[in-house]
User: Fold these one by one.
Assistant:
Number 1:
Amino acid sequence: MNHTPRKRFGQNFLHDQNVIQKIVSAIRLRKEDLLIEIGPGEGALTCQLLPQLSAMHAIELDRDLIPQLQQRCSSIGNLTLHNADVLKFDFSAIDEPDRPLRVVGNLPYNISTPLIFHLLQHQTRIQDMHFLLQKEVVDRLAAAPNSRTYGRLSVMIQRYCRVEPLFTIGPGAFNPPPKVNSSVVRLTPWKIAPVAIEDESHFSQLVAAAFSQRRKTVRNSLKGWVTPEQFEAAGVDPGCRAETVALEGFAALSNQSRPQ
Ligand code: SAM
């Protein structure tokens, strides 16, 4: 294709065929799967995925890529291409409400976190998501308590999904090469939530407040949010830092302190 990659669309195109095959194998497709690719770009993944499926959807923002992509894919499978911003895309518009969605994408780095949260609004319809992201972001998604990378993103994602980092990819697999390593991660929304949260909005604000001052104890960072009695009822030591509190601890703090 004769397209100059655009930085503002986060365009780092995959060209290493071994890496492309490794990603495609990790997804373990079945013919009847309802797969949506985010940001197909020039079709590096699309062209390998499409022949394995009866049909597939892809959402691409850069309209200059659409005609070439359409032409390239028309002879190899049944692709429905949506020229849209995935952050505004209404997934319920994919008109097969009874089929679980599988989502895949070498994501534009600048929108990866808001996009994952956007998708999680549809989590009951999603079977799984395979994303290629900056390694540093995957490390944060997967981090356990007591690690340097554990933070708000880890808690908020792990509340919704099982997070499985799969493998790391060096900059040389892309054109142009990014400055950092990338990783492939599988996110699988829980069928049964690991914790019960009574007020989602309160939970998310409380987690944000706890990590807003990482170096402080939760007694201080959650002043005005959680009383000493509520810490005790939740079984969380107010003298510890947020990075030592597990998802279960945040859920208990949120349920104890939720507005009545
Ligand atoms: N899948 C291709 C590959 O692996 O070579 C391209 C990956 S490139 C990192 C990201 C792609 O997402 C680009 O094609 C870019 O135009 C597209 N993109 C960027 N922002 C987008 C958005 N908001 N909605 C949909 N697509 C977007």
Number 2:
Amino acid sequence: MMSSTRERPRDALRRVFGFDDFRPGQAAVIERLLAGRSTLAVFPTGAGKSLCYQLPALLLDGLTVVVSPLIALMKDQVDALERRGVAAARLDSTLTREETQAVLERMAGGGLRLLYVAPERLSNERFLSRLRRVRVPLLAVDEAHCISEWGHNFRPEYLKVARTARDLGVGAVLALTATATPSVAEDVRRAFGIDAADHVQTDLFRPNLTLHVTPCPAAVADRVPLLLERLRAQPGPTIVYVTLQRTAEEVARALTAAGVAASAYHAGLEAPARAEVQDAFMGGALRVVVATIAFGMGIDKADIRAIYHLNLPKTLEGYVQEVGRAGRDGEPARCELLACEDDRIGLESFTYGDTPTPEAVRALVDEVLGGDEAFSVSVYDLSQAHDIRPLVVETALTYLELEGALRATGPFYAGYRLRFLRDEDEVLGRFDAGRQAFLRAVLAAGKRGRTWLTLEVGQVVAATREPRERIEAALRYLEEQGDLELQPSGLRQGLRRAPGAPAVDDLTDRLVALFRRREERDIERTAQVLRFARDPGCLVAHLLAHFGEAGRAPCGRCTSCRAPSSVPRAIPASPAPRLDDAAAALVAALRAEGHAALRLPRQLARFLCGLTSPATSRARLGRDPRFGRLSHVPFGEVLAFVEGRPPG
Ligand code: ADP
Ligand code: MG
């Protein structure tokens, strides 16, 4: 009965979305999904991947669940769908408890077609038990390359997404990504059980993009004149990508001083400032955005005429995504990479700063597996205690889960701080005697500061003998009435130790090996970018080969095609710095001072290279004049020097 009464995809495309035709690849994907086949869609950014699940969601019976790591994009899509009259909602960390509850009720009542969730949501037992009661014909997984260790943005929680998809028994999975090398595509297909025949891929590049590589000097200030020259020669909206926030600021200032309408955009700006830059750029008032990779996720501007990479990108995957923002209107666009090998040191620092010491990994595993069977942790506390960056702690916990040592039971808040916005006695006076006594007991169990009252929920439960749910419901009620301001604090992850977990030694070894492998792969990715920049052969063919399309004819327009050569392009590099007696004295002095945060060679090397860690931040060592003294030296060499080894 299904297919005979089902609206034809093309009709729904017109009726709901107002588009006349499918874009390349869309029809092939949608056809497969409607036939219940799991599918992998590899289309470049802006090619229209979302429609590949939005349209089937309207035609399939049940709820389509979309997993996406980007909260801002989820919100935009849900708003756009609602404007088109489609029942869509999202569940993410920015919703209040009541909003979450309302979404869950719509889901249970069958009133929703599409539900967007962040990947973590699929580790939440309470959510899963509700989802199991709903028919899910389609699970769409955006940014699916995150599942692959070979990918440039591996996120272990994606491995849990694949496991959950199997457990839930969803009808079909649609994995979506803008970039996938052959090994990444294979990982994604294996994880979600997708046939090679159901891998739909469109052209990686629009033919109107021209690629250039230009060797450039080491100092950013010396690159700016080159950039200005280009901006004068090539009119139109332009994005300039840089590695560091402070470079974005510096370059935007220099361009402005030279009379170009330019602004910086990076994650260090407040949200309103970022929105202002984005709006001005979209509206045409601002010609140039100088940005870190934080810019571009949701940028759908058709007439971008040029993308300049003022620094080396970290990976070819990132590079392809970034240049893919140019020329969506089909008109010619210039993509130019300024290349200097010195940039590599800064890129590699991101990687090295993440790798924890084996000692720290062991201590973390010991702490997590050494306690009660059911327990909870604060990622922040673990990060501080073991000097491991918070995201890396999360990765470690996820791995312990995947290794069968732990089971996540969901996040919760350990406490709240609150302050009354109206007179406290007046507020309490509105309630009957019983409720008033309850509220007074709750407040009495907290600690009063000058402005804020701090509540540890565990203590309040013990003092009042009331269940956690009642206490939290009362606080939220008062917040909603505008009686008080309520801030949750101390986010904790509930965990359960699994029976028969592997031994601590074993798990430590596996985690240490995992982090080492990640480091090696990231370093190799940066090497790939340099090989691309040096290639005397066609640059387009080089990229296509990297993404699995070997043997493409030369484009005839890129830097390499225009000036054919048989030797690699020379990319400038400053001479290798020498680690001399002064450096040795520096190391000796820091050791003699006995800083707890700099005890291990790796910690000391991070400090000298200017890489922050939770322990150095807490000890305020980032302000020490010696912090970053060796940041011009590759991390590997500094580490070898500190360890007294010959450099690698
Ligand atoms: P991706 O996720 O691949 O980066 P999106 O799904 O965000 O791309 O789509 C990019 C833009 O293309 C959106 O504005 C969308 O409305 C538009 N679009 C998608 N499919 C079509 C189509 N068949 N015809 C016209 N516009 C489309
Ligand atoms: Mg998308």
